[in-house]
Amino acid sequence: MDIMLFSSVYGVRPGVRAAAERLKAAGHTVWTPDLYEGRVFDDVEEARQYRDGIGLDELLRRAVVAAAPHSDRGLVYAGFSLGAAVAQNLALGDEKARGLLLLHGTSDIAEDAAVDELPVQLHVADPDVYEPHDWLTAWYLRMGRAGADVEVYRYPGVGHLYTDPDLPDYDAPAAEETWRVALGFLETLEPSQG
């Protein structure tokens, strides 16, 4: 599969590169667009300030520009937290999207969003302060109405970004289970026509 993998609010940190390498080792082609143009952060508040300075519209524009040269191949969009929100927006707007892999995050859904049984898999902490139960229930229902085929995996007792080995939320057993399930999901997707 051809995968467009977007980073969390921290930027393209070593954990994102490690995830890309894991996906490549499983036989996938992976791009990790740097929407921050080289900036990475260790402090979440600094990262959020930088994100807010760029603005979500500009981040989405940069993501579209990064994905455009590859989108006719039929991409799987993936991302971590903020990157998951970006990936979701792109996947719902790309009629050739083959799948959507969301790690630690979701995004709002336009009322007119429509996809043809787009395979979607979400992995999220339970509970997650950024993805509360009420929000996720509403998100799941809206994604279904949009035509997505959604699977949700919840991981009790872990922090928000539990798959990033360089962040305090890291939980090795939950991260390994997430990658086991996610790689299985990717294997079920229809191959790219490239």
CATH 4th-level superfamily: Alpha/Beta hydrolase fold, catalytic domain
Provide the spatial order of strands within the biggest beta sheet.
Answer: 2-1-3-4-5-6
The H/E string reads EHEHHEHEEHEH
> What's the average pLDDT?
95
- Please count the beta strands (DSSP E, at least 2 residues each): 6
CATH topology: Rossmann fold
Instruction: Indicate the low-confidence ranges by residue numbers.
Output: none
Q: Number of folding domains?
A: 1
Major sheet attributes: 6 strands, parallel
What is the CATH-assigned architecture? 3-Layer(aba) Sandwich
Shape type: globular
Q: How does this model look, in words?
A:
This protein has one domain: Rossmann fold, CATH 3.40.50. Helices cover 40% and strands 18% of the residues. The chain is built from six helices and six strands. Helix 4 links the parallel strand 3 and strand 4 (99-103). The mean pLDDT is 95.
Would you spell out the secondary-structure blueprint of this structure?
Blueprint: E1 2-6, H1 14-25, E2 29-31, H2 44-54, H3 56-67, E3 75-80, H4 82-93, E4 99-103, E5 119-126, H5 133-146, E6 149-156, H6 172-188
Parallel strand pairs: 1-2, 1-3, 3-4, 4-5, 5-6
Helix pairs in contact: 3-4
Could you give a quick summary of the protein structure above?
This protein has a single domain (2-188), classed as Alpha/Beta hydrolase fold, catalytic domain (Rossmann fold). The protein is built from six helices and six strands.
